[in-house]
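Q: Hi! First time asking for a complex rather than a single chain. Here are the components, and I think there are two in total. Is that enough to go on?
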Amino acid sequence: MDTSTLAIEVNGISKSYGTVKALDHVSLEVQRGEIFGLIGPDGAGKTSLFKILVTLLNADEGNAKVDGLEVAADYRKVRSRVGYMPGKFSLYPDLTIEENMEFFATLFGVTVEQNYDLVAPIYKQIEPFKKRRAGRLSGGMKQKLALSCALIHKPSVLFLDEPTTGVDAVSRSEFWDMLHNLREQGLSILVSTPYMDEASRCDRIALCNTGRILDIDSPQHMVEKFDGKLYAIKARDMYGLLKDLRDNSSIANCYTAGEYHHLLASADFDAQAIEHHLAELGHEDLEIKPIAPDIEDVFIKLLSNEQ
Amino acid sequence: MRGFLKFVKKETLHILRDSRTMLIALLMPVVQILLFGFAISTEVNNVNVAVVVPKWDEQIRQSINKLSSNPYITYKGAIAEHEIDQNLRSGKVDAIVVFAHDFDRLMTQWKQSGNGKAAMQFIMDASNTNTAQAGAGYLNNILAGELMQSNSLVETHMLFNPQMKSAFNFVPGIMGMIFILICAMLTSVAIVREKETGTMDVLLVSPVRPLTIILAKMTPYFILSCINLTTILLLARFVLGIPMSGNLSSIIVVSLVYLLLSLSLGLLISTIAKQQIVALLISAAVMMVPIVMLSGMLFPIENMPAVLQPLSAIVPARWYIDAMRKLLIQGASFGLVLKDFLILVGMTLAVLAIALKNFKDKLE
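A: Yes, that's all I need. Here is the structure of the assembled complex.
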């Protein structure tokens, strides 16, 4: 493995489907041995970028390198160096776990035994069921099998397109533990997810929306550099509360966030005055408290800055 | 090579585990051959015949004996002249033979001088032209055969298929159809399924060449078709009694080329279609219909409108069926099917070239 080059290098990639611009001059770099998260809602262009990087699609503009190789010109070489796990479950449901594994190993000219060590921590969990057909596995097991199959040829860069979508919370957490294990073994990983709470499990993330990258940084740094005061607020009538807050000029932004609403303060914001004002409007059980932002708050702020 | 065999093994597993499709693929030829060979037959087998006899005599009894002992005729007895119309309308009989009242004398005169007045009349129910024509032919042969033969301007011999068995006509046609169905339809669906389930993405993101993917997909279907070829030939020979007088190796060589052509067509379809249903529709609309209508399997090419005749030339099945007729029924030598063979080889190369050029190792 050549450690002097970047694992992934993307320079001004654009891609359109008809009039829809899926990727708009996207650039990013993924270091060796890094878990890089591509985080954004559906339609952000994550899958398109994946397909360009694993050489399935050609970009309209820009260029990209994976493992030091041009994805457009050297696509055959790139194909043998990457492991790709598409967003949709893409194994053979009528073949057993074992048969799927063996098939994907031979596809890359290796045997399961040869690279068993790399996949063992993951594969061992499903190995007891190796005679079971892939179509009859649970979501979490399918995901583990797909990851094992993507890893069996010991790729240098791993592409995981929304690997945790449709998987339960426990399996999701386990899955991230597995990715950290793989990173320890020197793999570079590009992973996409629509779940903002998974951002903290990445070394660095790119927040993206509608084909553009809003910011690239480590998740900690992204949260630290959040400028502005953030409050969580709740009352009995949550919907009325949201409407009233949005009408208030001292509040830059207000949005739902689970049990609470989050509100981003403007310069002339005064928490006590707001509380008083809301009580006058008839809101009961009011609770307002300053909070530290998370990635979702960062994302929403970046989005509103754009507009 | 080891990789290729593993690939073939995987494709074979897909086929074996989809037992319904496999059963259809293996049983379809048997069912079709037996259906067309026995049940769906254009032969006219049981012509119901009644007679009208104004005056019984020995000559007439002899003629009626000949009728009732013939396997193609069911003798329904004598009726009165006024019952003719009612019998034909009710469908009780297909044909009525009316003997002249001086039949004995007229027949003797015919035998002696070779001409004379009509001695009998055939009244046919021609609402089914097929039965009427065949029936009239039978009756002519049975009742007037000896006179015609001793004293006729034309002498007809039915070579190769003297009994006009329709199975002889259908077997080459069914072979032309089955191989297209199994090779083209199943192969195209098998490739397109990988696109539809997304597994094609994973296959493409690997060092495997598209050609390997394609060849590995084709191999099991090719073997399946070879099994079918064997079944069809065995059934045709031993159950339907097709003479198979031609050279067996010629039959096999031409058939193998046709199998390859069908596989290439399937591949071509798979490069165009994105969904299995589209692949099926193309197979059915673009291939099945022309094969049935234009290949000469059911309707003679010479009878087609002039516009359609050149169109039939691009239907591969036309050439295969033609070659199989010559080899299976006429017992022709390979030299006589050389033109068909070369056309099939040319088509195979052309379709394969287009398909491979069309096959993309990227999406879009």
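A: The longest strand of chain B covers residues 47-52. Let me know if you'd like any chain examined more closely.
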